[in-house]
Each structure stands twice: as C-alpha cells, then as structure tokens.
C-alpha cells in the first residue's frame, strides 16, 4: 500500500493516477473540501484527514509500505512543510513496515535562503529524513510545468505575460508527468535509493523564453510586462503591517523570482540514466495539455 499526501495537487494527483494505472494499492490523503472524486473513481482508497493533526497522520500510515510526500504548504510552511513531514517520518518509523519514503523538496533547499520559509522547512525535513534510518529518495524539482498552465491560458486570452524581475535568470522546468513517474519509480529503482536528486527539464531556459514559447504555441506575439523586483519588496513591507503570515510567504516567492533554479546538463543526463526516460520539453508538455 502506498500513502500519497498532497494527492489532489499537481504532483500528487499524477502520482495517484500512475499508481492506479499500474494497479498498485494507494491511499490518497485528502482534505474534506478537496476535489478527490476522480481519484476515487480510479480506484484509490480515500483517506480524509488534516495534515495538521498528528492523529490523522498516524492513522493514515497504518498498513502502508511506501510513503510519498508531495503536499505543499500554502502560507503555512511551519505546520505543513515542516511539522507534517516530520510526523510522517516518525509515524513511518513507528509502524516498522515502511520500506521507502519519497519526499518532494525544492531545488535550492540547501542554499541557505534565510528569507524563504518553504526552503528552510524543506531543508530541515531533508536532514531529518536522512538521519531517520528509513530508505528514502529526495527529489528537488526546479519548477513544475503544470504551474504554467494557468498562465498559458491567460496568455491565450490576453496575449499578456507578467515577468517580474530579471528576464535572463535561468530555469529548467520539469514536466510534471515526468516528475510523477520518477516519484513512483523511486521506490523500486536501486540507483535512486538514499539519494538527493536535482530534477529539471531537458533544457536550460531563460525566464524570457517562457512567453516566447507561449507565443509559438498560440501563434501570437507576446506582450511582456516586466516590473522590477523591488515592487515585491514594497508589497511585502505593506503586508507586514497587516498580515505577517502573508509577508513571510512572500519571502519564498521573492526568493524564487530573484534567483536561478536550473539543473546542469550532467544532472539531467544522470536523471535520464537512473530512471531510464527521455525528459519532455516544456513546450511539448504545454502543447499536450492545451490541445493546440
């Protein structure tokens, strides 16, 4: 039995689908308010709970051999990115039967970004998992292609693309379907065991390449709006007066905008070798989902 947290998110939903296609038994950890009907229809066992509740995590871990943590945190990185994952690891150890733990981290978690709560939480969980004695695979994606789908749809309607910060910053966005396959295969591929793997797509792109890709897909010239990064700083300062939680969350957002997140060609070659796949380009992923 596989337990998947974040199973209605961009990564988790694809992981559950793939496990069901491979006829594996899977328990999908979902919130009561989430849309999980498709996963139930595919044959997943639905566990309704709250990752902020330790008793729910302990109950969900009973009888599972593989735990896949894909959930995000929204604006609550302490409770979800950190505490929930620590409790998942502790519960996995307590059952004594968990054979492998797969954790979705983030590229750059080890760079020490002090102003980015998500990065700090992910790094702390990585270190805890490594010291736990469990078999593990930690995947650090540089960016998810599925996150660009709403932006692409907005571009299709307006021709506009908002690009905050340096358009020359490099990125290597991974197909979310490729990432899901790597997640699922991590529990059986020996070369992925007890590894921390940077994960990106096959191309190193500039951020300004993304609206160009949109333009090619929809056959229209992009209108790029490129405000400076200090606008985010101004917004953070204003939010600090009324909503400190949102201000902290914007620290992670600013870190993502201000820095480069890409995998080297050597790292990509290593990924393709370990998982025996040919990574999909961002443009091909978008064309498939946008049915262009």
Radius of gyration: 19 Å
What is the CATH T-level topology of one domain?
Rossmann fold
For the sheet with most strands, the description reads:
7 strands, parallel
The CATH architecture of one domain can be named as 3-Layer(aba) Sandwich
CATH superfamily grouping of one domain: NAD(P)-binding Rossmann-like Domain
Strand content: 5-15%
Distance between the termini: 38 Å
Structural class: alpha/beta
Overall, the morphology is globular
Tally of contiguous helical segments: 12
Mean of the pLDDT scores?
92
Q: Please state how the strands of the largest beta sheet are arranged side by side.
A: 3-2-1-4-5-6-9
Q: How many strand elements?
A: 11
- Uncertain spans, ≥5 residues at pLDDT below 50? none
CATH level 1 name of one domain: Alpha Beta
Helix content: 40-55%
Order of helices and strands: EHEHEHEHEHEHEEHEEHEHHHH
Structure commentary:
- The protein is built from twelve helices and eleven strands.
- The protein is an alpha/beta fold and 292 residues long.
- It has a domain at 2-142 and 175-199 and 264-279: 3-Layer(aba) Sandwich (Rossmann fold).
- Helix 5 (117-130) links the parallel strand 5 and strand 6 (136-141).
- Helix 1 (10-21) crosses helix 7 (176-185) and helix 4 (77-95) runs parallel beside helix 5.
- The longest helix is centred in the first third of the chain and has 19 residues, at 77-95.
- The radius of gyration is 19 Å and the shape is globular.
């Amino acid at each position: 039995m596989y337990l998947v947290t974040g199973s209605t998110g961009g990564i988790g939903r694809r992981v559950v689908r793939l496990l069901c296609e491979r006829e594996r038994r899977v328990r999908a950890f979902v919130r009561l308010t989430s849309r999980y009907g498709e996963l139930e229809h595919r044959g997943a066992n639905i566990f309704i709970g709250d990752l902020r509740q330790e008793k729910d995590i302990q109950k969900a871990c009973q009888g599972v051999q593989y735990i896949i943590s894909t959930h995000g945190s929204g604006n609550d990185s302490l409770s979800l990115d950190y505490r929930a994952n620590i409790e998942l690891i502790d519960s996995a150890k307590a059952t004594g039967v968990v054979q492998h733990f797969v954790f979705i981290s983030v590229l750059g978690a080890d760079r020490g970004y002090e102003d980015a709560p998500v990065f700090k939480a992910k790094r702390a969980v990585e270190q805890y998992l490594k010291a736990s004695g469990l078999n593990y695979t930690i995947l650090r994606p540089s960016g998810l292609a599925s996150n660009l789908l709403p932006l692409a749809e907005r571009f299709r309607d307006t021709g506009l693309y908002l690009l905050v910060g340096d358009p020359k910053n490099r990125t290597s966005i991974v197909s979310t379907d490729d990432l899901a396959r790597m997640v699922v295969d991590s529990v059986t591929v020996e070369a992925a065991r007890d590894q921390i793997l940077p994960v990106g797509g096959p191309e190193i792109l500039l951020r300004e390449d993304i609206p160009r890709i949109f333009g090619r897909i929809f056959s229209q010239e992009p209108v790029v709006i490129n405000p400076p990064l200090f606008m985010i700083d101004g917004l953070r300062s204003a939010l600090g007066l009324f909503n400190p939680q949102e201000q902290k969350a914007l620290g992670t957002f600013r870190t993502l905008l201000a820095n480069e997140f890409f995998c080297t060609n050597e790292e990509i070659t290593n990924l393709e070798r370990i998982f025996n796949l040919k990574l999909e380009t961002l443009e091909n992923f978008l064309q498939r989902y946008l049915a262009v």
